[in-house]
Amino acid sequence: MAASSSDQGATATLSSPFKYDVFLSFRGDTRLKFTDTLYHALVNKRIETFRDSEKLRIGEEIEGALLEAIERSRMSILVLCAKYPTSRWCLDELVKIMQCSNSGSKRPVLPIFFYVEPADLKYQRKSYGKAMTNHKNKGRYNHKLESWKSALFAVGNKSGLCVNKNIAWGEAIIKIVEEVTKSVPPVPLYIDHPLGCDSELEKVAKSLLQIDSCATCLMLGIHGDGEISQFVAELYNKIRPHFATASFLSNISEKTNASGGGLEHLQETLLSEMGEEVKSKIGSTFKGSSEIIHRLGHKRVLLVLDDVDKIQQLNSLAGREDWFGHGSRIIITTRHEGVLDEHRLCNGVEIKKYHFVGGQVEEDDVEEGDVVGFTKYWSFVKEQLYDANIHVVSIIGMGGLGKTTVAQKIYKNKEVKNLFPTRGWTRVSKDYEPRDVLLRLLQDLMKSKSAYQNLEVEDLKKKVRNYLKGKKYLIVLDDIWKPEVWDDLKSAFLIGSTGSKILITSRDEQVANFTGSKSYELPPLDEKESWELFCKKVFSGKECPSELEPHGKSIVESCGGLPLAIVAMAGVVAKKKRLESEWLGIKERIHWHLTRDETQVMQVLQHSYDNLSEELKQCFRYLGIYPEDFEIPARELIQLWMAEGFIQPQESGLPNAPEPEEVGEEFLKELVDRNMVHVATRRSDGGMKTCLIHDLFRDLCIVLSKADKFFEVCTVSNIHTLSNPQRLSFLCSETSYMSSVETNQSSTRSLFIFAGKDYSDDALKNFQSVQVLHLGNKARFLPVPSNFQFMIFLKYLKITRTSKPRKAPECIWSLLNLETMDIRGWITCCIPNDFWKLKRLRHVSISSDTVSLPKYEKGTTMWNLQTLSGVDLDTPTALLFRDGRFPSLKRLSLWLDPTREKRRSWHELLSSLQHLSKLYKLKLHCCHSDLSIDAMMFPLNLAKISIKVFGKVDSSSMKALGQLPNLQALKLLEGTISDPLDCAARDFLKLEVFKMVKVKVVSWVLAEGAMPRLRRLLIKECPKLCELPEQLWSLTTLAEVHVVEPSHELENNLQDVEVNDNCDLTISYMAKY
Predict the structure, then answer these.
(1) Is residue 59 one of the residues assigned to a domain?
(2) Which terminus of the chain, N or C, has fewer Cβ atoms within 10 Å?
(3) Is 955:980 a contact under the CB 8 Å cutoff?
(4) What phi, psi does 191 have (nearest 5°)?
(5) pLDDT exceeding 70 applies to what percent of the chain?
(6) Reduced to 3 DSSP states, what percent helix, strand and coil does the chain have, rounded to the nearest 5?
């Protein structure tokens, strides 16, 4: 079928391996009647049809022209009459046609059984049997007989159209033409160098053009420079099959001048390409418009009007929506935005206006106020654009936050245009080629790229440099995915010259770090902004009816401040009636709506996932196991990754090889840098304490994991349809399922329980093969599960809470594969000698009143143990520390129980800690014991100390703490400092965090040179402290001072304090009940 395109230029020309739509194969005796009528019916419908000539059948073989015609036809029609098999040329044609049909292109074949039965061909009977016998008897073509028979058998098996005395020829020919029209798709426009923007084409087709809807005629106006014509040509090819008829009128601005033939000629072309016969020349645009309305008013058409520059062109070619049938789509491109506005105002046309920039089509919104939250973004970026010392600015954020939209608003801002006379925009994207990026930039800067198509990358860079030389410019590099891109492109720019700037958008913080840019992390919209955006899209900025507002706000809240999701849901809501029942139904199925392909929310988020390494993909998907909005402990997550085998131990012998925990921290940090995971809380040293993922990223994890059974989340709605996944996460209270005899969980290797109550003691009987068992805060087991001793594969065990305190079973100490044991939800009465057999143990946390480490056999060392929490510091334990039984210990939490040891011995016992050379963090629960601390009792590596429930600490002990060379964080909770807290010069040289909670301290003196690195200070419920040291406020590093429940005197003194601009002073009070 001939393509609908009036374009003869480079953007949209015809170039295809096919020359014909249909190859017509027939025997000569049907030529003058049935076949001739069929041929002309096809031609009249503008179906390019090849009808052979007897002149082409010369000699013993098919002439080359016939072979070429078959090969270059998109389908074949076989008029199979009784005499068809008597011709060796017809049979050779048939063999060739069936070869093309069975090849990779699978070209359609339509058999017309003309007064014969399909079985005659299939079984070679009647006239077909006689013909094949005659060929065999002659003997000249015996080498072809099998291929002829095979082809006849194959075509006899195909469904076709039977023509006999009971069917009128005219009726049969109409059916044939209809079938051909369905079978032969339109020839696409030829695109010389595709832009590679399939996702953007998909967005425009589905979201903007609503291509699957036939409700109304829709006009779309796209304005901009650059490759807009080529973009729309590619869009035309993508959506053309959805329409019975279409036309692409290109270069309209040129073709409407005198030499181009004028508007009347374009009207004729439009009608002709739409399949309408134009018998006489159109003499005026008035007549042409009438013809378009009359002939196309009932048809669903696709019309592209490319490069319009005058309102008269639109008046003549697409004056109003009712010129065309329901479901039609009219796409207008122009470099003159005002033409679209004039068409809308003068003709009352409802036209959706969009801006094409950097390979993207974005909704047109001229005013900065149209972008929700733009003011706060603009104030930051504006400051960077005016700063002469900053050359590169980055806007960073997760997919769907609107980075490109914000960048476009900045790019089109009038002040920016005045500040940077030269501006250029190029989209980089995930699968980028430096050459394509540079060509797009040259196109945007110089409005032409044809002269540079054949240049190599380095030559293109030189062209860009030469053009920018001496100019003050702003270049936008939109959507950079990898830091290495900067290395590929930066030499094209004169970085730092004449106040010019490079503006980058990216999902990855590492890109900003690599470029050395000043970055702005785009935050999600807050509650007010989210509601504003929703109302703007649903109600065009008007107020939401009061009865719908609660449901609307609930829908918006589920979007988590992600503009992409809010706009998607607004699109769903806007199509519904404004009734509470309708909106309530949407609210209840919001996650279903957001994960549908039509919204493209998941597609945008999945781009981030697809760009991860394979090891990071499984680490990221694992986050979906946790409940929605759950703050995930970072160390716990890393320990789980290790137990699952996502992080493999480094090869032994490698110098300075990182520990698996350190590798896990890097993995998690990379996910944060890529804005796929967010930091929820930080530790006192600035490290990540807990993290979160956006609800929609969690939905993506669940969707991705279901296909390969990576994990399933068990809720009330799906508990009886689980598919034996590798990992199972219970978020419901249906506990009976777990112990059900019918439950098949043979493949489940990890079990997470975040909800439920009153489980039976055999609740885990179907999960004896698990390697990970995580019983969260809301999972309450009454009895201890009976089958722990059989869980021999267990690597990770966490029991965080039980409904009543229960004794930990001793059998868990015989699980030799354990790496992490966190059983603080049980009471541990003793640790048996089997503890020393757990050679793989890396992290142990227990809850106890008084429990000691067991005696050990000579030569036993726990080489892998890094965390030990909840044991007593007694004489046997101190001896273990001295003897080097825990050479890798980094985090230690000890109880100092005065009922087990005499108080005067604490100094001696604490001195054993100096043998723990890798100890980084120490917690001491002193049970109201007095402490006397010596700096020599602690290892030099110690960075964090927490002392809780202590009796008295004197000034010499505080002085000793101040001498620790690497101490970064000090927390004192519930105790007494008997002397004034006197910090001399060079005390606490590396301390960054200092907290005193419920500490009785009378005064605090800070000499100059003490605590020079202090960043955070918390003073909470210290009733005797009347003032903070004056020297404190001169510390340049101080960023946060929080005072909770100060004494009256302290509160008054803080009113007069002058705080520097970089420090936040907060005074707060706890609620009184």
Answers:
(1) yes
(2) C
(3) yes
(4) -115, 115
(5) 87
(6) 40, 20, 40
